[in-house]
Specification:
Shape: globular
Number of helices: 12
Protein name: Class I SAM-dependent methyltransferase
Number of domains: 2
Strand order of the largest sheet: 5-4-3-6-7-9-8
Bound molecules: S-adenosylmethionine
InterPro entries: Erg6_SMT_methyltransf, Methyltransf_11, SAM-dependent_MTases_sf
Radius of gyration: 19 Å
CATH class of the largest domain: Alpha Beta
Distance between the termini: 37 Å
GO molecular function, one term: methyltransferase activity
CATH topology of the largest domain: Rossmann fold
Oligomer: single chain
Structural class: alpha/beta
Helix content: 40-55%
Pfam family, one: Methyltransf_11
Strand content: 15-25%
Keywords: Methyltransferase, Transferase
Largest sheet: 7 strands, mixed
Length: about 325
């Protein structure tokens, strides 16, 4: 996710724009571990600490990822690709590999409506807005809003992409700044695995949707988080219409991105051009993991493995680091009752 580190006094720091200490990375992964362990994060203080850690990493990412670079792990789906090419024929030919766009359009296509142009759409956890911006071109949204916890991401989205009918606001998925029944569609793309209170998020989605409105959700799950998700469905205020396992489609996109010379590899190399060699190798290997390499069973080279273990050893200086094992990538479609 976040290339371009430099090392200083036992920490890993970001060059040029802002700093990211090893401790920040450690806190991020510890939060991801807690949140995905299948239990509600206990206290408000612990929830807040998780959100601060998540925000720090995504703040860093939204300052440093180039336009068109990956926003999510992506999806490779021939039908969605064909659907997109009807309206944006060269979407994957110039400044993107197209997989992140496909994940967005998969989620919107799955709602099954021919025309979404008159719907009021909310993208919760929109990052720096490129997914919603792209989807609004494909589906012709006239009234769409993206929301993210991360102020930098929202500033970047508004500076580059906002226009009449498309804007971005800073906010928390667990406390949506919208009135009851204000929205027709809520999408949530690869974001909810970072929410400490999943129950509250689902109830917020149900609250802001109008009766008959749709919730289209894609995300990765650990086994424990999946069990928690299933247990929360009946009390969410939503009618759950479909669950689709898209693990294979996501893995296919990740594997394409991991290939030598891929768009992602070239983009990462460009981004890290000014980083000293050793740090480039260290952070490059971390970046591959953050783009889903482990999930897709990527065969790291011996050199990549070595760099990764050095990096993990550095992180461990900040405390113990528990592994998080994501086992599936799912799409869920629900409707407000
Ligand atoms: C992996 S990124 C995905 C971004 C975007 N959906 C995409 O697919 O391109 C996850 C995003 O969720 C956001 N996020 C995390 N926790 C959040 C919360 N509690 N409320 C709103 N956004 C949150 C992060 O800041 C980050 O931008």
């Amino acid at each position: 996710m976040f290339g371009d580190f430099s090392m200083g006094r036992g920490a890993v720091e970001m060059k040029k724009s802002g700093a990211l200490a090893a401790d920040d990375i450690h806190k991020f992964w510890h939060s991801i571990f807690l949140i995905n362990s299948g239990h509600a994060v206990a206290s408000d203080e612990a929830k807040q600490a998780c959100k601060e850690a998540i925000k720090a990493l995504y703040d860093f990412g939204s300052r440093n990822l180039h336009d068109g670079m990956v926003w999510n792990w992506g999806c490779s789906d021939a039908a969605v690709d064909a659907r997109i090419k009807k309206s944006v024929p060269l979407y994957d030919a110039v400044s993107s590999d197209g997989f992140s766009e496909q994940l967005y359009c998969f989620a919107l296509n799955a709602i099954g409506l021919d025309d979404l142009s008159d719907k009021r759409v909310l993208d919760v956890g929109c990052g720096f807005g490129e997914g919603l911006n792209f989807a609004s071109r494909v589906f012709g949204f006239q009234n769409a809003v993206g929301l993210d916890l991360c102020r930098n991401a929202i500033d970047r989205a508004n500076a580059r992409l906002s226009r009449p009918g498309l804007l971005f606001v800073c906010g928390d998925a667990e406390e949506l700044p919208f009135d009851d029944g204000e929205l027709d569609i809520v999408v949530n793309i690869e974001s909810s695995h970072t929410y400490p209170d999943l129950s509250r998020f689902l109830k917020e989605v149900a609250r802001v949707l109008r009766p008959g409105g749709y919730f289209s959700h894609v995300d990765l799950f650990t086994d424990d988080r999946y069990r928690q998700f299933v247990a929360l469905k009946p009390e969410s205020g939503l009618e759950w219409l479909a669950e689709t396992d898209i693990t294979d489609r996501v893995k296919e996109a990740i594997r394409a991105r991991m290939r030598p010379g891929s768009f992602l590899r070239r983009a990462l190399a460009k981004q890290q051009r000014d980083t000293p060699m050793l740090l480039r190798m260290l952070s490059g290997s971390l970046a591959l993991a953050n783009f889903g390499a482990d999930f897709a069973g990527h065969q790291y080279t011996r050199w990549e493995r070595l760099m990764q273990s050095m990096f993990v050893r550095m992180l461990k200086r900040s405390g113990s680091l528990q592994p998080v094992r994501f086992t599936r990538y799912l799409h869920h479609l629900a409707r407000k009752v």
